[in-house]
Specification:
The chain has two domains: about 230 residues, Periplasmic binding protein-like II (D-Maltodextrin-Binding Protein, domain 2, 3-Layer(aba) Sandwich), CATH 3.40.190.10; about 210 residues, Dipeptide-binding Protein, Domain 3 (Dipeptide-binding Protein, domain 3). Helix 8 runs antiparallel to helix 10 and helix 14 packs antiparallel against helix 15. It starts with a helix and ends with a strand. The protein is globular and about 80 Å long. The protein contains 15 helices and 20 strands. The N terminus is likely disordered. Helices cover about 30% and strands about 25% of the residues. By secondary structure, it is an alpha+beta fold.
Length: about 500
């Protein structure tokens, strides 16, 4: 009997192990050049590889490229792996990289990702496993843009209309998992382990993405053990999971890749006065916001770049909550009970957390004598009548955070234009100079030091009150082994995960 159990367990482990996740919408195109929605990107990440990737410490390491070197500050040489095969068995080579770059820049496709390659002057094949990339000028994204997934030339060169190709539905890549059939709208998606993956075959044989339309249903499926992984809200993890749930799932928590802020229209008085902005910053209790909104599952945000990266100053001394000092500054500026500072905060409906944050902030400001009002608009109306025309005093919005920041669009003076993201009207000549200097810095350490200076200058000017970074909370079935949490999440080493067999 024992021998029989061992044999059955081995069969399940080798051939039947499956991992069940959820997907909230159907992919559009499973193609790294065209995957602009989260569902498409989520699936494409399993199927395709770039030349480089982030490791668990957020450092760039080789993927399809085994090594690289800068011949000079505008020339990058990649040495490619010679043991990589496409899912159909054809060997990967430099021709695939050249083809992908040419397709990305061709008029045959329309993609926002092509702009990342605007600084590339030329990509040449040296031999089957060596390519040379020449840039127009030194470029801080010279290496990171090659995280873009590579397409198989032998399949895609036959496609006359890449935007409508069947390969967008049934993708062939070099990644750790492969598709077994074209995906169907609003249907489950199954991926099978790539037995010839260049590192090793993933330990988990199959990934099943179950189509789940909303987070409440996902939570119910988690509780009933129909999913092996799922996101949890602070309310769910604090109030709605029981002892049985904790017995079945491990919970992993880390800061999310985004922050919420209160931004001012710096073109208009009184917000063109930095002392006013400082007083408001001192009056806002960020920790109270986090405790009330997220049941303490979050961190105060102190600036524009992601904590834990080399752009975040290690010696930062953030401004502390100090309502007494806020009152003093307001009094110095002539604001009293009889003449209080008044303004309107505007945010969008459909985001209950932002609206609740605004309501809490109103009460905090009232404690120092500031009488602010709240206005809530539907998202498109908010953008088209408030944000883009710069028709506001203060807004509550959010930005995503990247491991390699690019401050240009939000913080450079050039972004203060129609359609630009610098809609608060922030101008600082030294920040502009440093942003431009960093654009041509290919050394990541030097780049980080420049961005730390930018960080401190922006924070000192208070164009935003950086509010909070909510935590990302993930539940994973306890039968999964090998998880290594990191700054980039928990999925980075998925091919090493194992499913315990009882």
């Amino acid at each position: 009997m024992l021998r029989f159990i061992v044999i059955i367990s081995l069969i399940i482990y080798l051939y039947g192990s499956e991992f069940r996740a959820s997907i909230s919408s159907s992919p559009n195109r499973i193609n790294p050049l065209l995957a602009t929605d989260s569902a498409s990107s989520q699936i494409a990440d399993w199927i395709f590889n770039g030349l480089v990737k982030f490791n668990k410490d957020a450092k760039i390491v080789g993927d399809l490229a085994k090594s690289w070197e800068f011949e000079n500050n505008t020339t990058l040489i990649f040495k490619l792996r010679d043991n990589v095969f496409w899912h159909d068995g054809v060997k990967f080579s430099a021709d695939d990289v050249i083809f992908t770059y040419n397709l990305l820049k061709s008029p045959k496709i329309s993609t926002p990702y092509s702009s990342d390659f605007n600084e590339v002057k030329d990509v040449k094949k040296i031999d089957d496993f060596t390519i040379k990339v020449t840039y127009k000028r030194p470029y801080f994204k010279a290496l990171s843009i090659w995280m873009m997934g590579i397409l198989p030339k032998h399949l895609w060169e036959k496609e006359k209309n890449p935007m409508q190709s069947k390969l967008n539905k049934f993708a062939v890549g070099t990644g750790p998992y492969r598709m077994i059939k074209p995906f169907e709208v609003n249907k489950n998606i199954e991926l099978i382990a790539n037995e010839k993956y260049y590192l090793h075959k993933p330990n988990i044989n199959k990934i099943i993405y179950k189509y789940v339309g909303d987070s409440a249903t996902e939570f119910l499926l988690l509780k009933s053990m129909q999913l092996d992984i799922g996101g949890l809200s602070p309310l769910q993890v604090s109030r709605q999971i029981d002892k049985k749930f904790k017995e079945n799932f491990n919970i992993y928590e880390r800061p999310s890749n985004g922050y919420t802020y209160l931004g001012f229209n710096l073109r208009k008085p009184p917000f063109n006065n930095p002392k006013i902005r400082e007083a408001i910053a001192l009056a806002i209790n960020k920790q109270e916001l986090i405790d009330l909104l997220f049941f303490s599952h979050g961190k105060p945000c102190y600036g524009p770049f992601m904590p834990g990266t080399n752009a975040y100053p290690k010696d930062l001394k953030p401004l502390s909550y100090n309502p007494k000092r806020a009152k003093e500054i307001l009094k110095e500026l002539g604001y009293t009970k009889e003449n209080p500072l008044t303004f309107t905060i505007i945010t969008n409906s459909g985001n209950d957390i932002r609206v609740k944050a605004a309501e809490i902030i109103l009460q905090q400001l009232l404690k120092v004598g500031i009488k602010a009002k709240l206005r809530v608009l539907e998202w498109q109306a908010f953008l088209n009548t408030i944000v883009f025309p710069r028709n506001f005093e203060a807004v509550i919005l959010g930005w995503s955070l990247g491991l390699i920041p690019d401050a240009y669009s939000i913080w450079h003076s050039d972004g203060d234009k129609k359609g630009g993201f610098n809609f608060v009207g922030y101008h600082n000549k030294e920040v502009d100079r440093l942003i431009e200097k960093a654009k041509s810095e290919i050394d990541p350490i030097k780049f980080g030091k420049i961005y730390q200076k930018i960080f401190k200058l922006i924070v000192n000017d208070h164009p935003y009150i950086f509010l909070y970074i909510p935590n990302s909370i993930t539940a994973v079935n306890k039968k999964i082994e090998g998880i290594e949490p990191s700054i980039i999440g928990i999925m980075h080493n998925f091919i090493d995960w194992k499913i315990k067999v009882k």
